[in-house]
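Human: My hope is that you can spare some time for a protein that puzzles me. I am handing you a single protein, as its sequence and its fold in token form. Could you go through the record with me and say what the backbone is doing? Take your time, and here it is.
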Amino acid sequence: MLELGQLIAGPFAAKTLADFGADVIKIEPPGSGDPLRKWRMLKDGTSVWWQVQSRNKRSLALDLRTPEGQDLVRQLALESDVLIENFRPGALEAWGLSPEDLMAQNPRLIVLRISGYGQTGPYRNRPGFGVIGEAMGGLRNLTGEPGRVPVRVGVSIGDTLAALHGVIGILLALQHRHRTGQGQVIDVALYEAVFNCMESLVPEYSAFGAVRGPAGSALPGIAPTNAYLCQDGAYALIAGNGDSIFKRLMALIGRQDLADDPALADNTGRVQRVIEIDAAIGVWTALRPVQAVLDALDEASVPAGRIYTVADIASDPHYLARGMLQQVTLDDGEQLTVPGMVPKLSVTPGTHRRNAPELGQDSESVLREIGLTVEQIAALKARGIVN
């Protein structure tokens, strides 16, 4: 598998497949490498994020702007099952590496293209980062408190959603190729990946003219589900929106009158009186510390939880039992905790086979696999085409 992208969306798609055994050759520009190497918090000059995003990959430092570099990509594509890229539309074509050209020599090749707006349409040439896709896809207008500036999610959720849609596309394309021997192009737009997760946004507008906006910690049209302040200043997230769950919740908080009210027997009635219901729950939580609230709700089989910080995650026994926090030994011998593998497969689980590579760490071995001699590789290095 060839990874020609950088930063988040394309590399996250490749990382997901690499975790489950794909041999990913990551092509990076010589000298600088993927900019993610220097994003956020650095350890010994390299982002610790890099250790997650590029684990299980091999690094080939190759200048795609040169004819020699482009020719090497063509040779690599001949032997590849999948190529992933997340450049602006037209970049591959400008380098003579269009999917049509590559698939002419390797009809089985599957090409995943992730971009801000997709490969077609009037916006195709605009630069698009995840936050722009989140806004255009409808998510940004739903976050935060009513009447205030819409806030962004604290991670690059648009890029990640696009990456996961890309992985789905690759898996579907592999099934098709298994039946027919035919490769294909997968076109994923950041905004469309976000838009695909917007649930009832469009049909509600179509049917009722409703323009959904931010609702704080509640979920409009579903009741009760909210964040409730507890005695110790922490919040309990309570989802009592199932009909039988609601009855158990009301009985627990001493509001049997609400549990027995026929007008509140289903979600439609509860939505009409959500302010009253939320107030009743809030009165109960305000008299108890959050852990007592959660213990009581668990005993009553009412879905609830606290808001986790990373410190909570790092010490949580369920995270640990599920293997979601793994210790890896870096190349300098130091230990680093990284996220575990998702999803969990019973026969072919994901594994941490190797650390994220140094820039160009695997250039020589990859190029020798496609037939280049030591002398040819040395000549490419001397000209700065390979690092």
